[in-house]
Each structure stands twice: as structure tokens, then as C-alpha cells.
Amino acid sequence: xxxxxxxxxxxxxxxxxxxxxxxxxxxxxxxxxxxxxxxxxxxxxxxxxxxxxxxxxxxxxxxxxxxxxxxxxxxxxxxxxxxxxxxxxxxxxxxxxxxxxxxxxxxxxxxxxxxxxxxxxxxxxxxxxxxxxxxxxxxxxxxxxxxxxxxxxxxxxxxxxxxxxxxxxxxxxxxxxxxxxxxxxxxxxxxxxxxxxxxxxxxxxxxxxxxxxxxxxxxxx
Amino acid sequence: xxxxxxxxxxxxxxxxxxxxxxxxxxxxxxxxxxxxxxxxxxxxxxxxxxxxxxxxxxxxxxxxxxxxxxxxxxxxxxxxxxxxxxxxxxxxxxxxxxxxxxxxxxxxxxxxxxxxxxxxxxxxxxxxxxxxxxxxxxxxxxxxxxxxxxxxxxxxxxxxxxxxxxxxxxxxxxxxxxxxxxxxxxxxxxxxxxxxxx
Lengths: 221, 198
Description:
The complex is a heterodimer.
Chain A: H1 27-42, H2 47-55, H3 59-64, H4 67-82, H5 87-92, H6 110-116, E1 124-125, E2 139-142, E3 161-171, H7 174-179, E4 186-194, H8 195-199, E5 208-214, E6 218-220
Antiparallel strand pairs in A: 1-3, 2-3, 2-6, 3-4, 4-5
Chain B: H1 10-28, H2 34-47, H3 50-62, H4 64-72, H5 74-79, E1 91-95, E2 100-105, H6 114-117, H7 122-125, H8 127-132, H9 137-143, E3 153-158, E4 164-168, H10 180-184, H11 189-193
Parallel strand pairs in B: 1-4, 2-3
Helix pairs in contact in B: 3-4
Keywords (chain A): Lyase
Enzyme class (chain A): lyase
Pfam families (chain A): NHase_beta_C, NHase_beta_N
């Protein structure tokens, strides 16, 4: 979606808060982080759906509320949409009905999450799952898309030309994962853009910006 | 240690109440096991973090064959050190040289290589960093105190898909006699994101 989260290149945010080195400053931020991880198993939702829920916050809220409060609000949104909690329950913290957890059954215990965290997610598919449409060195142009759902092609590269720097292989497609449409596996590429092609003559003459872009975002230039 | 040092900030209290209600409700509904929440926090705070990345960098500085492997197949070379998991399933390591300086960002959210760097610091998630480092990296790096020669090519890596990036910083001069542990102590988080030189 063309939302406030798509910040690359925007003006007006001032200096970078370089001294803000901390990860957590409050205990509730730790709990919010862990809740998002744990709820993903049982609500359930995937990382792309959680990212998209954060993107769907009102722009003013996105800019002003704490990062880990956004994570919690996204969980609340996804729980309501999955039908496992009501708005009233989320406001009070008091249960009024038992959700049907279906095949997910009971939540993972400490030993289970401990075993899975070092393994991570399966994001990639065998190379023969899809033929690549582009080759390294080829010039490509990012499509002019205005996807109302989740997408990972930032505005600042749309309609811009770059060069395929690396074929990363076949990955699940974030746009489809966020819609709950399954993985739609396809090649993903690292694409190199000249800074001046993105930002004009004032940009670094030799600077480059690299993005990882799924095949569905690209056309031959 | 956790420390709630803000005095009665109503926004902060609202967020704390919201998260407490979310946890209580989720436990009551059987959606989460509180012991699993503790295990998640403990895992990311104790077993991930910049010291993992520093160990990778120190080994690459000490062992040319490992450095080559790391640059060619970051995922496998980092897994060889035992650093794997969510937000690090697919890793690429980019090397700083005399000619090239690399810096990492996620303009769309906060993607960051958790197994080797832990969770991102607040500045990495800030609107100013995300908005500006792709457009004016040299000015942003100067705010971190890093002034690069005009001749240095700056490469910005925007983590828009499933690859997570780690910068291999340049080895500081005068460190030839140091072993890997002593080298790792010189490596900072910002050095591995590309907002500092070592």
C-alpha cells in the first residue's frame, strides 16, 4: 500500500537520533515483542501479515506511537480479523468467549519455541520451482504498481531503471503471503540503482542503492 | 535490567496497559503460554546480539578462507558459527574496502539480521534514518560522526525482501598481533550496520 511506512526518500524527519542505541527501554516492550512472536503460531499470522497490519495503522498513529506498541496493535487487529478476540475483550483484557483454535490446538510451550527460534522460517523454494525471467546484468524497470495491500516495492524505485546484480533464487512472495494466498514462489533479485537515477543530479555521483525485488515487480527496461 | 524511568507519561502508561491486557487475554484464551513468552525474550536477549556478528567479523579478519566463504555464501558461513534463525535465514555480507563503504537500512519497516546483531536499536527504526539514508547517505553517516572521503563509493542496501545484510568492516590498522577474541572486542554494532568505521 502507498502508506506512511514507505519512507525511503521522504523529507522532513530531521536528524537521525543517533544516541538512541537501546532495543528496549520498558519491560512491556519485551512482552509485546514476545507476544507477537508467540501469537503468530496460534492466531495464526505470518510475518508479512504482521507487517501489513502495522502499515494499516492510521498514518498519524504510525508516526507517533512507540514501535512495540505498534506491534501490539497489529496483533490486536489480526486477532479480531481471525475471530479469536473481540474489541471489547482486547480493551479490558477479560475473556468473554473461547476461540476455536482448530488444528493449532494448544500454544507452543517454552521448549518448542526454544527449538524453533534457531531454525527460523522456510522462505525459499528449490531453484527449479520457477524459471527466472531476468539474468544478471540485465536492465529492468520497476512496474508502476499501486497495490492496496502489502507490497515490498517502495515508491522511490517505481518506474526507475536498475540492473540485476544477483539472482537470489526462488522465494515466497511477500505480497501473496500477506493476502493469505499462499507462497506464489518466484525469483527475487538484487537490483542496483544509480543514486542519481533515484534522487537526481544532487545525489552521490557514484552512489548506488540496492534493493531485493521479486520478479512480479519488474519489467525488462 | 528493565527500567521504567519515565515519570507518569500517559502515552507510555497507555501502551503498557494495552500490552498487559493483550497478554492476559491471550493467556486466558489459550493462545499463548506465558513460559514461552519468557523463553522468547530470554533467547533474543541472551543468544542473539552484536557479539555474534563480532565473532563472525573477527574470524573473517583472521582467516582469509573464511572471509572468502563469508562473502560468497554468507548464510552458510554464518551458520557455521552457530548463528541461525528468524530474520537471518538468508544472509549476505558486504565488505567495506578503501574504495567502497556499505550501509544497511529497511525503509519499509525494520528488517535487521537478528541472529548476528540481535534486535535493532531505536535509531535504526527511526523515520529519519529510514527516510534519509537511501537519499543522502553521506549526510546521515556524518551525523553518526563518520566522515568518508569524497572518493569513497557509498552503497546502500535496502532490506526489502528476505535477505538480511551484514557489513564486514575494515580491519583497524595496528591489530596484526591480536587474536580473534581481541579482534571481536573491537567490532561494534554500528560498524556492522555501516554507520561507523572501526
